[in-house]
Structure formats: C-alpha cells, structure tokens
Amino acid sequence: MPSLEEIAGLLKTHYPFRKLDDARLLAIAERMDGQTFEDGELIFQAGNDARHLYFVYSGAVTCSVGEGEAEMVISRFVPGDLFGYEMLGNEACWQSSASADGQTLVMRLFRDDMQAILEEMPELVDGLEMLYDSYHLSLQVPFDWRKPDEAIYFMARKQILFLALRMAPVALLAVFTLPLALTFLVLTNGMATAWVVLLVDLLAIAGWGLWNYVDWANDYSVVTSQRVINQERVVLLYDSRQEAPLNAVLSVTTSTDQWGRWLKYGDVIVRTYAGVIVLPKLANPQQVVALIEGEWARARVNRTAMEKAAIAKMLRERLGMNRPGAAAVNQPVAPQVEPGELQRLFANLFRMRFESGSTITYRTHWFFLLRHIFFPTLAFLAVWVVFFLRAAGVFAVLSVGAMFALTLLGSLVVGLWWLYQYTDWRNDYYVISDDQVLDVYKKPLGREERQAAPLRNIQSIEFKRIGLLGLLLNYGTVYIRVGDANLTFDYVFNPADVQQELFRRIAERDYKDKRSAEEKELQRTLDLFQIYHRVAEEDRILRQPPPQN
C-alpha cells in the first residue's frame, strides 16, 4: 500500500486537487483506503449503490455502459484520474460499470468523508461540480470521433444565458403575434382561415424555438485525456470540429468583457503549435483554464517519459541489447465502422462543410443552392396546383385522368431539372487535406476543372464578404495565393473559419516537418552511438591479450 505522501503526490496531479497545499492533500489522503483488483475484475456495476469516489493509483480502469453486445466503453482512466462521479451528486446508483484493466490499485473516499472534505475545503466544490456535470453530459451525448481509451474530463455547452438570448426574439414573436391571431379567431367566430393563421403562427414559434435550442445544444467544448476540442454543428448544414493534442498546447488564457465578469462567462483561448482554438462563452472560464493547465502538465510529463523510453528502446535495438523474450505488446484496436456510400450521401445532401477522416470538404452557401433550385421548385408546385384546380372543377380542360398523366410527366421533367440544378451546386466543392488544397468545378454531364496546390506552397490567404447578403448570411470568397496562381473557395459559409482552418493546417504541417527533422537528427545521433559502440567493441577485442598456450 502506498504511503500518504505518495497518495497526496498523485492527487496533486489532478484537477481540482492540484491547487491544494501539501497539508490539505495529506488530510485527504488520510481519509482514503485502497483496494487492489485483478485484470477484468468488476469495481462497481451500473445500478448498484453509489457510495464511493474512486481515484486510480496504478493500473487502469475501463468504464462502460450497456451489457452484452450492446456494451460500449465510454472512458479509460489512468493513474491520477477520478471516477465514480455519481457519488458527488448524491445519486442512488451508478450510471456505468467499471472494471480493472490489468492489475489495478484504486483509492476510494466514502460519501461521508467526501462531504466532510468539501465542508473543510469549499474551494473544491466548483471544480468537482464541473467534473460531475461533464460526466453526465458525456453519458447523454456520444461522439463518434472519441477513442475507446479516451476519457472525457470536461464537456460543456455555451452558458445557458446565450440560449436565453436566442429565445428572446422567439418570445417577442409569441407575445406580439399570438394575441393578434387569437383576436382574429374570436372576431371571425372560428373561421377556418383564422384557425390556419393560428396554426401557422404556433408552428413558426415552435419551429424557430426548437431550431434555436438544437443549434445551441449541438455546440460543445471538450477536454479529453488526449486533446482539446471545439465542435460546432448546424443540423444538416454545417459540421466543424477544431482540435489539438494536449501535448501541443503552448498557453491557455481567458477573454471576457464586463458583462462576462458580472455573469461569470468568457472564452477560453488555447494556443497550440497548430494555431488557436477558442472554447466560446463558457461558464466559469477560470475553472476550465485550471483544468486544461493540469491536464496539459500531465500530458507533458507523459510525453517526456514516452520519448525517453522510445529513445532507450531504439538505442538498445541499434546496439543489439534487446532482452530475449521482450516482445512488443499489441494493444487491441477498436474496429472502426465506416459509413456506406448511401449513408454518406444522405448525411451530406445539403451540408456546406463536412469531414471524412482528416479531410474537410466545403460547398458554396445554401443561399446559392436555393437560387439553383428556386425555379424548378416553383415549376413543380405550379404543375400540381394546376392539377388540383382541375380536380376541383375550377376549369374543364382535359379529363382528370388525362390531366393526372400530364402532371406526372411534367413532374418527371421538372424533377430532372431540379436534380440537375442540385447536382450542379453539389459538384462545386473545395477540399482541405493534410498536405494540399483542392478546388473542383464540375458541370453535370459536362466539363470538370480541378486545381490543386500543396499546403507548403501557399503564400497568402485572405477572404472577402461582398454585399449586404454576404454580411447577413455570413458567406464570402477565400483567396489562396500559390505562386502566380490563385485558388478561390467561392461563396463558402463563414469564410473566416475556412481561413483559420487553412492557417491551422499549414502550422500543423510545419510542426510535423519540424518533428520529422528532429527525428532524423535523432537517428543520426543513434548512428554515431552505434558506430562508437562497434569501434569500442573492436578496440576491446584488439586489446585482449592473446590466449596462453
């Protein structure tokens, strides 16, 4: 069993305990007791009483939800991590199950001890509440990009104040239009037209409110055991995710205004080797900064240890000093389920931005799709309106059967026209990958033009929003200068984000090139060690006295 000092030292590596002094860390360590579990042994099971907060001292812990074939790993905790957050909220039972991954030692705190600690050290309350809220949100929102061994430490939406601000115009619409619609209904003694007006008003209010909520609820700021992520998503239209590894973080700061200081919200700005990631409008941003700084420090320590181990391994291999039987252990890799072509097609029918692996594809703004399909849609509606007028007996040209057949034929022609216009919009797209940018212009059944340029050859990037509509709908053109040529991403949504993504990819590419150069330099150094070792061994053999007869 580890000493109190060793337990306190490991506690200090995890937020929010890292801000406590040694005396208070030792006081917490005194209240802990340890349990050792063998590989695969159950620590607790979903549905059982939640009575402890756990802390991984050595080994690892896998948390999962569901049973049998439906079981899904949600986190893997390593030394220094907390788990069992249900106890912090006085919940009756565990929401997930936890089992040991290899021989594992965990330290635990009973509920009464934890409550006593929080009374003595109230500065821990806000941080533990943030971890508790993040845990429950992570159970509700599965991410397809999260790795099975990746624990979510922090997860939040923008402060709820910003949902209220989005709902304010919806409330104003309801306040001004509902009384008018109800008055119209009363004055007309319940005419069908008045009911239609009221129904349309209610649908508009409910639809707008629901859209605002879903749009707010789909944006997340996330800190995991491996990276920092900002995800923005507009249903069916836009999907953006900015991320950076924790070990690539350079600094973490906050940005707020007077209202933010009063209402306790602000932006968390994470500067990395590959650019800047902004976690926007978060509640208690200083707490988030403290958490990221703690995980960043742990990531740096782990990275340094891994680099030293890798160098030692390469050196032993070069010098032929590998111990017999020390085979590499292959970690199981979770199978990646790739969506089918049909699924991918329907998922990206109208999206202006979507990702596939590390490749990002942009299309022109939805306003230009509406321009493409406006007349085909109008013609389609007109064809069916004429048919319904004939069916209602408004005019008597042709029989109803003949008119129906003509309507079907017209719908087919107009539908092909609509499909052509949609395909014309869809076939113009712009791609950013790890090493190049691509501009594709293609006419359905016609010519195709492709322009590509390596990221390393890009000289400048700028964007312009032109006209009032460009400002209101937030679209514009991104100009990419490559030598004497220009590539343009025409009329893309949020061109500032496209520019930022390009800058981030270029910085990431430069960082990878720098790391590659460092690895080559390391290989040259190891070559020198190998040569020195060989020469020293040859010299040792030459200096040995000849065998005595």
Q: Quick gist of this model?
A:
The chain has about 550 residues and is of the alpha+beta class. The protein is built from 13 helices and 23 strands.
Q: Can you describe what's shown?
A:
This protein has helices at residues 4-11, 22-30, 111-120, 125-140, 160-187, 192-217, 258-263, 285-318, 341-347, 366-391, 400-426, 467-473, 495-543, and strands spanning 33-37, 42-44, 52-58, 61-65, 72-77, 82-83, 97-100, 104-110, 152-156, 220-224, 227-234, 238-245, 249-255, 265-272, 275-283, 353-356, 359-363, 429-432, 436-442, 448-454, 458-464, 475-482, 485-493. By secondary structure, it is an alpha+beta fold. Among the domains are: 1-126, Sandwich (Jelly Rolls), CATH 2.60.120.10; 160-217; 341-497, no CATH class. The strands form 6 sheets. The chain has a 5-stranded antiparallel β-sheet. Strands 1-8-3-6 form a 4-stranded antiparallel β-sheet. Helix 1 (4-11) crosses helix 2 (22-30) and helix 5 runs antiparallel to helix 6 (192-217).
Brief descriptors of the model:
549 residues; alpha+beta; Jelly Rolls; 5-stranded antiparallel sheet
**Morphology:** globular
Largest β-sheet summary: 5 strands, antiparallel
- Our Rg estimate from Cα atoms comes to 31 Å
What structural class do helix, strand and pairing data support?
alpha+beta
How helix-rich are the residues, as a percent range?
40-55%
Counted beta strands: 23
| Beta-strand content bin | 25-35%
Instruction: Tell me the number of helical segments per DSSP (H or I, 4 or more residues long).
Output: 13
- Tell me the span between the first and last alpha carbons: 59 Å
Overall average residue pLDDT = 84
How would you write the strand order of the largest sheet? 16-17-18-19-20
Spans of at least 5 consecutive residues whose pLDDT stays below 50 are 325-338
